[in-house]
Amino acid sequence: MSSIEQLSDQIPDFAKDVRLNLTSLVADETLSPQRKYGLLLASAIATRNAALIAAMESAASAVMTSVAIAAAKAAASLMAMNNVYYRFAHLVSNPEYKTMPPRLRMNVIGNPGVEKSDFELWSLAVSAINGCVPASMPMRRH
Q1: Neighbours of 77 (CB within 10 A)
Q2: CB of 106 within 8 A of CB of 74?
Q3: Given CB 3.0 to 4.6 Å as the disulfide criterion, which of 7, 89, 97, 102 pairs with 55?
């Protein structure tokens, strides 16, 4: 039994739709294995759930190179940093902060070790999980 199947078996009945969606996603062959499992791994890291991360990393290691796994992890790490900074910059009331350069190091973008489209997809998924709002959409304040 795979780590994802074990994880799926732990999802309670009230979240049956989540379990079914996970199973469908893993079975879907629309994406290449690297693209799909990198997406699953980067997304799992964004959730900060240790069991989910372990299951997805185990599954990813069966179909991805160590370089690709590192790239998925880098996408999650980079987007976590960016999402925090840009959300802060968007919400802060002092206009001076909006004009300051972020000075965030993002060297991995230049050479992530995988196709840039894979890296961008993984980054986009992490940003969505982190609640990143595109600059063109105003954030609601509560």
Answers
A1: 15
A2: no
A3: 7
Angle formed by the axes of helices 33-47 and 50-61, to 10°? 160
Nearest-angstrom CA–CA distance, 108 and 26: 27
- CATH number of domain containing 75: 1.20.1290.10
Query: Is residue 141 included in any domain, yes or no?
Result: no
Distance CA 122, CA 71 (A): 9
pTM confidence score: 0.80
Alpha-carbon torsion, ordered 18, 24, 29, 34, to 10 deg? 30
Across the chain, how many H-helices and E-strands are there?
7, 0
CB 32 within 8 A of CB 83: no
Please check whether residue 128 is in contact with residue 79, taking contact to mean a CB–CB distance below 8 angstroms: no
Instruction: Render pLDDT for 16-74 as a digit per residue (tens, 0 to 9).
Output: 998 998 899 889 999 999 999 999 999 999 999 998 999 999 999 999 999 999 999 99
Does 142 map to a domain?
A: no
Name the DSSP class of 62: T
Domain containing 8 equals 3-129
